[in-house]
Write a structure and sequence with these properties.
alpha+beta; elongated; four-stranded antiparallel beta sheet; Thrombin, subunit H; single chain
Length: 114
C-alpha cells in the first residue's frame, strides 16, 4: 500500500510538470556577456508584445515580438548614467527610463516612444 501511495504521488508530480510547462528562458544580451545585472523588464499594458528592459550600468533592451527577440542599446545622458535602471511605460505609450547619475542623489529620466 505504501508503494501505491508513492507511485500516485510521483505520477502526480510527473504529469503536472508536463501539463504546466514553464516559460522558455530567452537571453536579451550577448552569450558571452555576464556583467549585466539588476535587470528590470516592463510590459507595455496597451500592447503586450512590446517590452522594454534595462540593466547595469547603462544597457537598454527592446522587444516588439513578445520577448522572442531583443535589440540592445545604451542609455545615455549629458550628465552620465550610473546604473540601477528602472523601466516603465506611461499612459501615453512612452517608455520611461530612470537611472542614477554619477552624482550623489540624482536621477535621470529619458523617454522613448514605440
Amino acid at each position: 500500500m505504501k508503494h501505491i501511495y508513492s507511485l500516485v504521488i510521483l505520477s502526480t508530480f510527473f504529469f503536472s510538470s508536463i501539463s504546466f510547462p514553464q516559460y522558455q528562458n530567452i537571453r536579451v544580451d550577448g552569450i558571452g556577456n555576464t556583467s549585466h545585472n539588476e535587470v528590470t523588464i516592463a510590459i507595455n499594458p496597451l500592447n503586450p508584445d512590446v517590452l522594454a528592459g534595462g540593466s547595469n550600468i547603462n544597457n537598454f533592451y527592446t522587444s516588439i515580438d513578445g520577448g522572442n527577440t531583443w535589440s540592445e542599446s545604451d542609455m545615455s545622458s549629458s550628465l552620465g548614467v550610473w546604473g540601477d535602471p528602472v523601466v516603465l511605460f506611461d499612459s501615453l505609450n512612452n517608455v520611461r527610463l530612470l537611472a542614477l547619475l554619477n552624482l550623489p542623489f540624482h536621477l535621470i529620466i529619458n523617454t522613448f516612444t514605440h
